[in-house]
Amino acid sequence: MDTRVDASPPGGRIDPRRVDATTEAEIAAHQAADDADAMLDAARFARRVRRRLGFSQAEFAARIDVPLDTIRNWEQGKRCPTGAAKSLLKVLDKAPEAALAALP
Q1: What is the CATH architecture assignment of 42-104?
Q2: Share of the chain above pLDDT 90, in %
């Protein structure tokens, strides 16, 4: 019979004592940090797609038919592309020739 006690939870499990000890303020701070990281990831992705295509912000905005301020806000992490814009960026990233040929 193995009587060892492991202080750390097994892989993929939570430590209920640590979860119970977490305050609402700490949870809110973690959520804010996660949201900020997600915005930065989206900003980097939008910028990387545009640069790989070789467009300036103004050229890119005209090609995908969105306001220039929208592109700037995406790339500065002020806003996140959502819905169709997010899908279009993914297609432009994976199949740029086809996507650009389909755009006016």
Answers
A1: Orthogonal Bundle (1.10)
A2: 59
Using CA atoms, how far residue 91 sits from 28, 49, 68, 102, in Å, is 34, 10, 20, 11
| CB half-sphere exposure, 73, CA atoms < 13 A | 10
CB 56 within 8 A of CB 12: no
CA distance 39 to 81: 9
- Alpha-carbon distance 97 to 95, whole Å? 6
Distance CA 69, CA 101 (A): 24
Q: What is the pLDDT of residues 42-59, one digit of tens each?
A: 899 999 999 999 999 999
Predicted TM-score of the model (pTM):
0.68
Q: What angle do CA 21, 39, 62 make, to 5 degrees?
A: 170
| Residue pLDDT, tens place only, 21-50 | 888 898 888 887 877 777 778 899 999 999
